[in-house]
Design a protein that fits this description.
Layout (H helix, E strand, L loop, with lengths): L11 H19 L7 H10 L3 H4 L14 H19 L3 H36 L1
Helix pairs in contact: 4-5
């Protein structure tokens, strides 16, 4: 899902441009023929992402280095274990869920330690 940067609306010029853009789009909807399907026309307008011209999209942030592919697999396994536990809350499913949580936490903790150690080593050598 894309997120628009609504903070740009605090700028007066951007806000006026945004209002003009919206009024033009709704005026175009008012000038439709009776034969045209309004849902199709509206869908075409939205699909062009006309807001993107006025409001830029947020930049994606970089993930922390401990969130690698292996960690994502641990999260998927944990999610599956939780779904099994919700469907059938017996002791073996509870144990599977706890093991999945434990492994994911352990992996993330170890990766974070490795990252911090590598960063401190790099800082020590640079200084």
């Amino acid at each position: 899902m894309k997120r628009f940067n609504l903070k740009k609306l605090s700028d007066l010029q951007v806000r006026k441009l945004y209002q003009i853009e919206i009024s033009n789009r709704f005026a175009a909807l008012g000038n439709l023929n009776d034969r045209e399907d309004i849902n199709r026309v509206w869908g075409n307008m939205i699909s062009r992402l006309w807001l993107k011209t006025v409001l830029s999209l947020y930049e994606l942030q970089q993930h922390k280095p401990q969130f690698d592919e292996k960690y994502l697999r641990f999260l998927d396994q944990r999610k599956q274990a939780k779904m099994q536990w919700v469907q059938d809350p017996n002791q073996s499913n509870i144990d599977n869920l706890n093991n999945g949580r434990r492994e994911a936490s352990r992996h993330c903790r170890n990766k974070k330690k490795e990252y911090v150690k590598a960063t401190t080593d790099e800082l020590e050598t640079n200084s």
